[in-house]
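Repro case for the chain-ordering regression, as requested:
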Amino acid sequence: MASETPTRGLENVVVASTHLSAIDGNAGNLSYVGYNIHDLAARAGFEEVAYLLWHGDLPLAAELGAFGARLAAERALTADELALVRGIAARGHGMDALRTLVSGLAQLDDQAAETSDEHVERIGVRVLAKMPTLIAAWDRMRRGAAPVAPDPNLPHAANFLYMLRGTPPAPAEAHAFDCYMVLLAEHGLNASTFAARVAIGAQADAYCALVAAIGTLKGLLHGGANQKAMETFLAIEQPDRAAEYIESLLAAHGRLMGVGHRIYKVEDPRVRHLRRQVQLLAAGGESRWQAIADAVGRVVAEHPHFTRRQLNPNVEFYSAPLLYTLGLPLDLFTAAFALSRVAGWVGHIREQLADNRLIRPKADYSGPAPRGFVALNERG
Ligand code: ACO
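-- result from build under test --
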């Protein structure tokens, strides 16, 4: 059989059509359903963006109110859901907890296997609304604190910070996290979204697809990079140590986390907004992490290892100091990403279901040539 050259990592291979987002990695452009990310980051809230992704247009005020009310109604946990959290609160990484808890939501949903668009949208609202409550309750329980019920008067992003801390966030903090959620909500056929489309394409159910996406997002080359980027900044300790740290990392053939992207060959358009939010948060308190990230960014902008390969800070780079300044534990960073990206995942699941065909690529066989079977007692 003739050998075919595999496209490693499916780079530049187009395997789906989407109306959800458009990315131009050479120009550094991103839009959701036709709206430029710069406009959305400056002027839209997360609920508006989730609505946009699921309905194809920005909501009218009454539509946004109704959507917000549906989320608020789903946000609180039932006794069974709280028991689920209690059962796994003792140990593990935040992403492991999130994966288990979303899987648990499926088992508490009698209609989990329904894949009509109406049910997938219902499941989307349920999961999007409950994920922050579940993960905040899990974090509080592992710290020996009681879970905090959602506040029906707070929007989605602010509610998460409130449930995590037990006190409402300052307006600048709520705004920073809301902007973060707007920026992270959708990004084409990234690895976790692709995983969701593969699962739903095989006619699994929406929960299975979301769990597949969560498991994939945990990957260090994908959503897991925000935690690793922060660990890098913590290890650097002082801005004037950035260059030395990066030299020794490169000498050991390490990767600088939060840098590089498969699609973007120029600065990722989300970076400027995250950098700005980090600056605003730093202006009101701790500026050390902004200073370290800026120093690392300057090295990346000038160092030939990065310039020759067109490697720039990616969305995780300033997400790391943003989430750290907001007080999230390191192992909740990637879960915070998931709280936002679930909007995109659900949009893609619905899109795949609307025109489904099993996703089934091929592998080029590289094993031994055909050979005769040897009975067990004749081997060796
Ligand atoms: N630090 C140092 N060198 C890097 C980095 C990095 N962060 N990223 C890529 N390179 C180098 C590679 O070593 C390789 O060098 P070589 O040509 O000498 O072998 C070259 O750049 C190309 O790397 P690939 O792995 O082929 O690039 P790919 O497109 O597959 O990788 C990826 C993209 C995975 C994001 C990569 O840049 C990376 O590992 N970055 C760090 C992890 C990270 O921040 N991930 C989050 C991405 S954003 C997101 O998913 C939300």
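Ordering looks correct now. The chain has two domains: 17-218+343-354, 225-325.
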